[in-house]
Amino acid sequence: MYRPNFYESTCFRCNEIVYQVDRVGPLKDFTFFHSGCFKCAVCRTKLTLKTYFNNQHYTEDKEVYCSSHVPKIGPGHLDNSSVGIRSALNVPRSNNYVNEQIRGLARNLDNEREYDKVHHLDNSSVGIRSALNVPRSNNYVNEQIRGLARNLDNELSPTRATNGSSVHASPARELRDTPDYQYGRFDASALHIAHALKQTELQKAYHRPKEKPIDCYLDRDEQTKLEMKHRQEEDDLYRKFSKHREEENRRIRDEIQDEWERELERLTNRFQQEMQVKKRRPDSEIGALTLRHQQERADLEKNMTLRRDKKKESLTRKMLEHERAATAALVEKQSHEMMELIQERRSEYAAESSLYVDGEEAPPYPARAPAPQPPLVSKFHIYTDPIEFADVDKIAISVAQEDQKTFTDLVRQLVGRCATDVEKARTIFRWITVKNLNNIQFDDNLRGDSPLGLLRGIKHGTESYHVLFKRLCSYAGLHCVVIKGYSKSAGYQPGVRFEDNRFRNSWNAVFVAGAWRFVQCNWGARHLVNAKDAPKPGNRGKSDSLRYEYDDHYFLTDPREFIYEFYPLQSDWQLLKTPITLHDFEELPFVRSLFFRYGLYFSDPNTKAVMYTDSTGAVTMRIAMPAHMQSSLIFHYNLKFYDTEGDGFDGVSLKRFVMQSVVGNVVSFRVHAPCSGAFLLDIFANAVTPREYLTGEPMKFKSVCKFKICCAELQTVMVPLPDCASGEWGPTKATRLFGLVPITHQEALVFAGRELELQFRMSRPLADFMATLHKNGVDEKRLSKYVQQNVQDDVVSFYITFPEEGQYGLDIYTRERGGPTAIHQNGSVEKEKHLLTHCCKYLINSSKRN
After folding, report:
1. b/e per residue, 19-53, with b = 16+ CB within 10 A?
2. CA-closest candidate to residue 707, choices 682, 676, 673, 685
3. For the residues of 207-226, what is the DSSP string, one character each?
4. Rounded CA separation 131/140 (Å)
5. Model-level pTM?
């Protein structure tokens, strides 16, 4: 689902952020509106994309109007200066067809009007649409009219000032007097085609035509030859690593041995001195002294071994950091050389014949890595569903089950059938996520020219996912960089400051679809379903029964979403138009990929990672859902103390101090802290169908976001909510999953007297209703007699009487009438009954005053 840029897309009318479920646009010049703000600027009539109009007189006016109030000029007026064609009207009549076609517009409109009065002209209202479609037998006509885009110079005609402001109000005479002005040059914005031209330019960036495979312009042997040169360099580097490790291990061993001998000598001398003093003492004392010496010697040996291991661990960590840096530097150099070779051969081939299938041309892939810039379009414009890469993913999965001896062979198998740079990056990404490199079993005597020798960097720990991805991209002719920074990875909790190296991380940006785009292979890698049945290398017998799971969010992730989890050390590599600070990054809500996969967003722009309660200990977090997910998303939560694993207070679960409710497309979590301190709120979600929910099968929830809740001071004693079933309060769930529509009470919180009647209307058959009443400190069985129910036609009624004033919780359960069909062994067929499933719950405050 498309999500507009949270940082850049704001409503033209109210200047607030526009979210995808409430968005209208983009309109001309990429303006957006909230659906509620999309009203006529004059009469405030609500508009739609079919009923809105723009100012026909002044093209810089981005407001919207209804048909009655859109600024218009009297009928028959032609404003040839506002559309920039006065000069075209004055072109010498060297070609009667062209001039008559344009000049005739005015005569056909109104002979009684002068041409220099204000009026709007577009290609349909003034009859030049047919001219746009004239056969190319007259080049002058077509080039003059069709050439609008080519004559705009990046969408700015000579009628635009150098600072980007429009000068449409300038008289046409002044334009003609401009030295470099050309006759017949149209003003694209006045003709209302600037937006279309801009869209065309954007489309050129990511809708690239299919390109011929690398085999067409680069000989496999030539690429392999360069790879062998690189492998020799790697061999030299690994020998250097091995030699350095041996030297350092020997040095530590010698240091520990010298220290051991000194400490042992000191211990022995002390023992001998004590023996001299006690040699006339009883044998029992001498024996005790000997045992003590032996124990001290054993302790010394143990301590020296621990010290040696600790030193080796520290040294190994430092050496590994050095080796990783050296390996990354070498891969950087080799990738540059490989890219130069590919680009050189590519250019040579392009000079002789077309690189593209069917002869369709496109902007050439850059020979040099471009500077980091925000992408012009979102991931949604490149692909809307991973299923679009089904064939490419199959190739990656198939190749991952085989072994290759060279990167040249590996990459050509991966990208040989890929037609675009996006597909190339995709198949490399999927190969890495499928390969499950962390679980590969390496032979200790691994040779560099063996199939697994390709991944020896993974074995030695000197090469990681992102370095390998960069290497493979270079073999495919793709620019790729490794970005270093911080990430909200395992162990991170909201509110933690990035003051040390605990959360340092690396990831990639690859240049595809005309822009730099993020790839995080390590986080994108998932597991193999039925992994115990995974086929061995070369054995593809069981491959059809396996399913490879991965996280698509981390492939070409949009910068506005990536910044929630990753912060680069170089601000340019945020790829945001307005970079944020590290402090801003720390304050961003702690979200996971599932948050974006479900299209969630925070309806309150002030939502931060750390939320502070008011004087009553209350604070609310609100998460909005897209329209298409409202019927399927189920939320859950957990509350515990921030610094401990404790999840209870005075014997009561902390969950009972959170009220979850849904109103429209917003799910709210109202937290009432039971005491001062810090708490951790973890919010989970899962997408299920009503049918899946009604079966009563356990559902697996995954975390979508976390918050730190801080309560500095509590001035009110908080009472836990009644002990009802977990989940949201209110009737929304009943309507969403059961088709049970509330007639009397639409809110989660109900104020009642000593009696209450709740009514629902069934939109589909339900049966066997049950309601249970709860109150703190009162046995549930004792309250059962105070609840009754009745079903009349399609109306369900619940009657509750309250034995005393106070706060109550009401749980309602039901199940669908009928159910799935079960076929028994004896051949009999019967309808299975669903178990009663929780439908909804209400929080009721009973008082005589109500």
Report:
1. bbbbbbbbbbeebbbbeebbbbbeeeeebeeeebb
2. 682
3. -PPPB--GGGTS-HHHHHHH
4. 11
5. 0.70
Could you tell me the CA-to-CA distances from 421 to 215, 512, 562 in Å, in that order? 15, 6, 21
pLDDT tier at 190, thresholds 50, 70, 90: very low
What per-residue confidence (pLDDT) applies to 97? 37
pLDDT tens, residue by residue, 427-443: 999 999 888 666 666 55
For all residues of the chain together, what is the average pLDDT?
78
In whole angstroms, what is the distance from residue 162 CA to residue 150 CA? 19
| Residues 594-616: tens digit of each pLDDT | 999 999 999 998 999 999 999 89
Amino acid at 743: I
In angstroms, the CA 39 to CA 704 distance is 35
Q: Concatenate the DSSP letters of all residues of 742-756 into one string.
A: ESS--SSEEEE-SEE
CA dihedral in degrees (413, 419, 423, 428; nearest 10)?
Answer: 20
Fold of 727-850: Immunoglobulin-like (2.60.40)
Strand partners, 788: 799
Structural contact between residues 238 and 453, judged by C-beta atoms closer than 8 angstroms: no
pLDDT in tens, 507-519: 999 999 999 999 9
Percent with pLDDT over 90 in the chain: 42
H/E run at residue 268:
helix 220-277
Beta bridge partners of residue 771, listed in sequence order: 812
Q: Nearest CA to 256 among 200, 319, 306? A: 306
> What own/partner pairs with CB < 8 Å and gap ≥ 24 does 40-46 have?
40/64, 40/65, 40/66, 40/69, 41/65, 41/69, 42/66, 42/69, 43/68, 43/69
Residue 505: closest CA among 526, 528, 527, 521? 521
Among 718, 575, 560, 556, residue whose Cα is nearest residue 639? 718
3 state SS of 408:
helix
pLDDT digit string (tens) for 400-414? 888 888 999 999 999
Is the N-terminal amide bond of 26 cis, ω within 30° of 0? yes
Of 182, 215, 1, give the one whose Cα is nearest residue 85: 182
pLDDT over 70 at 775, yes or no: yes
**What is the CA 426 to chain-centroid distance, rounded?**
16
* Contact status, residue 448 vs residue 231, Cβ threshold 8 Å: yes
DSSP at 10: B
Please answer whether residues 249 and 312 qualify as being in contact, where contact means their C-beta atoms are separated by less than 8 angstroms.
yes
Helix (H, G, I), strand (E, B) or coil at 105: helix
Nearest-angstrom CA–CA distance, 691 and 676 = 42
Dihedral over Cα of 481, 484, 485, 489: its sign = positive
In angstroms, the CA 557 to CA 487 distance is: 15
Cα–Cα distance between 26 and 24 in angstroms, integer?
7
Render pLDDT for 212-230 as a digit per residue (tens, 0 to 9). 889 888 999 999 999 999 9
Q: Which residue has the tokens 């309507």?
A: 735
**Token representation of residue 831:** 């309808």
CATH topology of domain 589-721: Immunoglobulin-like (2.60.40)
Q: Which two tokens stand for residue 212?
A: 């011929």
Residues in the chain: 850
H/E run at residue 426:
helix 421-435
Q: What is the mean pLDDT of residues 286-304?
A: 81
Exposure letters 290-326 (e unless 16+ CB within 10 A, then b): eeebeeeeeeeeeebeeebeebeeeebeebeeebbee
Angle of helix 139-146 versus helix 96-109 axis, rounded to 10: 60
The residue with greater pLDDT, 820 or 703, is: 703
